[in-house]
Specification:
Blueprint (H helix, E strand, L loop, with lengths): L2 H16 L1 E6 L4 H4 L4 E3 L1 H10 L4 E5 L2 H10 L4 E3 L15 H8 L7 E4 L4 H4 L4 E3 L4 H7 L4 E5 L2 H10 L4 E4 L5 H4 L3 H10 L4 E4 L5 H4 L4 E2 L2 H10 L4 E5 L4 H8 L4 E3 L14 H10 L8 H16 L2
Parallel strand pairs: 1-2, 1-3, 3-4, 5-6, 5-7, 7-8, 9-10, 9-11, 11-12
Helix pairs in contact: 1-14, 3-4, 12-13
Bound molecules: 1,3-dihydroxyacetonephosphate and iron/sulfur cluster.
Length: 303
């Protein structure tokens, strides 16, 4: 039996024994994507976490995603195979930093991208993901809205919701801002028939070159709907594995240098060890969780 076969049969035994569900983000390594019960974007994973009847949620992604799962399923055990996998963008804002920032805008509601810690979520009015950010901002009655922490997602939302003033916090995703316009331009020249789909964490000069702007799962849907046979995928390159698996009839061009190292920290051996030893448990102090949960649940309630 190969090492991998041994790990896979151990995983099969443990997930039954623990009554565990494995949730994985679309950027995860192929070996994790292949064993996930559900693969998705932040919004889809949150919905799965809220709906599951498993006893244990094993979350393969980054820390804020596992925290969101715990907020929505407080009675379940939520484990991360690699709890050190964080999101540098989420770490760009703290509760204190947010309080200081919003002090200049008294009475203005705060929308937090789900890429924030539970402690920051506890301070805001409502959360959003890349899949629903314009809808969340539109749902607020106010003319002015503070959007944290991603300035580029905020820019894109401002274009979709021109009737509101969006006050931007200066955070960003280091992975998406590293995408160079010249690389995308060259890919477009090499594949002139290809449609271009980009993630809204990209800066405006990149989004201006895209035919569509979508969340990661939105990109999978786009690949199924577009008549284009070739698609340039402007986001973390791990998504290309899922796209090729689900749409073998199409050709995808990712940008190989666009890698989120945190998303690659979770491996099959770590996943098996986590379920065996029940390590990497996510806990959130109740006085933070009760407030943070409201912000996430308000988002989920919008549908
Ligand atoms: P999605 O919710 O679109 O999957 O994005 C999450 C993320 O962190 C992208 O960098
Ligand atoms: Fe965070 Fe960017 Fe990695 Fe997404 S790709 S988890 S926003 S650092």
């Amino acid at each position: 039996m190969s090492d991998n076969e041994g790990l896979l049969s151990e995983l099969a035994r443990l997930r039954r024994q623990r009554n565990a569900v494995i949730l994985a983000h679309n950027y995860q390594l192929p070996e994790i994507q292949d064993v996930a019960d559900f693969l998705g974007d932040s919004l889809g994973l949150s919905r799965q976490a809220a709906a599951t009847d498993a006893d244990v949620i094993v979350f393969c992604g980054v820390h804020f995603m596992a925290e969101t799962a715990k907020l929505l399923s407080p009675g379940k055990t939520v484990l991360m195979p690699e709890p050190r996998a964080g999101c540098p963008m989420a770490d760009m804002i703290t509760p204190q930093g947010l309080r200081e920032f919003r002090a200049d805008y008294p009475g203005v509601p705060v929308v937090a991208y789900v890429n924030t810690t539970a402690a920051v979520k506890a301070e805001v009015d409502i959360c959003c993901t890349s899949a629903n950010a314009p809808a969340v901002v539109r749902s607020l009655p106010d003319e002015r809205v503070i959007f944290v922490p991603d300035q580029y997602l905020a820019d894109w939302v401002a274009k979709q919701v021109p009737e509101k003033e969006i006050i931007r916090y200066p955070g960003f995703c280091p992975t998406h801002i590293a995408i160079r316009p010249e690389d995308l331009r060259r890919l477009k020249e090499e594949h002139p028939q290809a449609a271009v789909v980009a993630h809204p964490e990209c800066p405006p000069d990149i989004l201006a070159m895209a035919d569509a702007v979508r969340s990661t799962s939105g990109m999978v849907k786009f690949a199924g709907e577009t008549e284009a046979r070739e698609i340039i995928v402007v986001t973390e390159v791990g998504l290309v594995y899922r796209l090729e698996k689900e749409h073998p009839e199409k050709t995808f061009y990712g940008i190989g240098t666009v890698i989120c190292q945190n998303m690659k920290m979770t491996t099959l051996p770590k996943l098996v060890a986590c379920l065996l030893e029940m390590t990497g448990e996510i806990t959130i102090p109740e006085e933070i969780a009760s407030r943070a949960r409201q912000a996430v649940e308000r988002m989920i309630a919008l549908g």
